[in-house]
Amino acid sequence: MKRASINKIAIFIISLFSVSSVCAETYTSQGNGNWNATSNWKNGSGNSPSAADLVSGSHSFVVAAGHTIIINDSANVSAFTVNGNLVFGTVAGESKTMIVSGGFTVGTGGNVSVADLEGTHILKVSGGFVNNGTIAFRRNSIKVLNVVFSGTQTISGSGSGAFNNFEVASGTVTTNVNLDIDGSFTLDAGAKFNAGSTTINIAGNFTKNATGADDFDRGTSTIVLDGTTVQTISGVNNGNRFHNLTISGGGFVVISSQIDVANDFWITNNSTVSSSVELHFYGNFTVDAGSTYDTNTSYTCFWAGYTGSNRPTSASAGDQIITINGNATFAGISCRCSAAVGTKTFHGSINSTAELRAWGKAQIVDDASTYIHTFSGAIAQGGINLQSPMRITGGTIRCNDATPDESDYTLGSGKITIAGGV
User: Fold this and answer.
1) What is this structure's pTM?
2) DSSP of 285-304, one letter per residue?
3) Are strands 138-140 and 143-149 parallel, antiparallel or unpaired?
4) Strand 41-42 with 26-29, pairing
5) Which long-range contacts (CB under 8 A, 24 or more apart) does 350-358 make?
């Protein structure tokens, strides 16, 4: 009996040690140093973690104010808080990965950056991202820290700085703050992103691999593509839906999937947009002087007032202003309104290689007699009333979508020049 009791006590003591070894602890930095220097971390009892604790995913870590910690090895933690400085990278050509399952926080005065060494580092975050300090995740294209968000969480804080690549891998990610993304934005299949009322600047590509039409929930956000070289907008199924979309970097943006812009679309700062797919605009459309809009094969649709399934609820009012102060070449223009008359006013010259179409109760007009409009054929079901000269390069002029009507209708008071077989 005595031996059995001793054995039970021994087992109990061993089990206590086993439990304590996996209990979640919070370790705080004691000074400057490398991440894997275990002696530089202490918990409330003054104990340091083991090397295994740095990658167990069970413990939380805090970089104290005034301390600089270098991520020189793999890290897998519960929560991570930076009140001092956190720097990714110690050796050129090496890439480090940190996994944070319980939330990543940059405190007031905290700073997270990448070393001035070649390397593509990865920060995988679940549980939320809070930035009340400064983040600098990109020095140049080969010295970066990319962030991957997994699981439902929120991005918040009052800090500043920029991401590099920004990927939503799973769950629903909601941002409550404006974002500056100096790399690409990617929404993976099965993931969702809520943009709210924020402004999101993106210097790289915008890619939506999620199949739901509203998996990128635009809210009333403004997406600004501000890259200086080539950027792409791509997506699957229903393409991409934006509230406001601005192209402002002076680069070249290629749109390879259908987009719907519920509010305003603006090209400025000598930027160029090129597309070979049908694009839908429900607000005002502006091409500034020095900028270019060029569609190759598909129609540009001005559809404010065209209601129905998958149409923005904000598009019930039908009036739109299409301002062309730069260069714009349309591969056909479709204007459409449903129940109420909507006026599509062109401020600038129309240059379309295909038809100019006024469907339903849409009325196409211009606001001056000094433009030169060029198009190939027209459908005036709603109404076309242009003051400026019109150059018709071919096609068919008709009131409806079938054969030309016998009834009389007008294209406006502008002088008409026939420059092809009409």
Assistant:
1) 0.92
2) EEE-TT-EEEESSS-EEE-T
3) antiparallel
4) antiparallel
5) 350/324, 350/374, 350/375, 351/375, 352/376, 353/329, 353/393, 354/299, 354/330, 354/395, 355/379, 355/395, 356/332, 356/384, 357/299, 357/332, 357/333, 357/381, 358/382, 358/383, 358/384
For 99-118, the pLDDT digits (tens) are 999 999 999 999 999 999 99
From 415, 333, 417, select the one nearest 380 (Cα to Cα). Answer: 333
Q: What are phi and psi of 10, to 5 degrees?
A: -65, -45
Measure the CA–CA gap between 148 and 71, rounded to whole angstroms.
17
Structure tokens at 419: 């420059």
Q: Count CB-CB contacts under 10 A for residue 7.
A: 10
58, 270, 334 from 193: Cα distances, Å: 28, 30, 31
Task: State mean pLDDT over 323-334.
Answer: 97
Give the pLDDT confidence of 173-228 residue by residue, as tens digits: 999 999 999 999 999 999 999 999 999 999 999 999 999 989 999 999 999 999 99
- What would the pLDDT profile of 241-299 be if each residue is shown by its tens digit? 999 999 999 999 999 999 999 999 999 999 999 999 999 999 999 999 999 999 988 99
> Which residues lie across from 112 on neighbouring strands?
86, 135
Would you say 135 and 161 are in contact if contact means Cβ atoms under 8 Å apart?
yes
Take residue 366 and report the two structure tokens written for it.
Answer: 């211009």
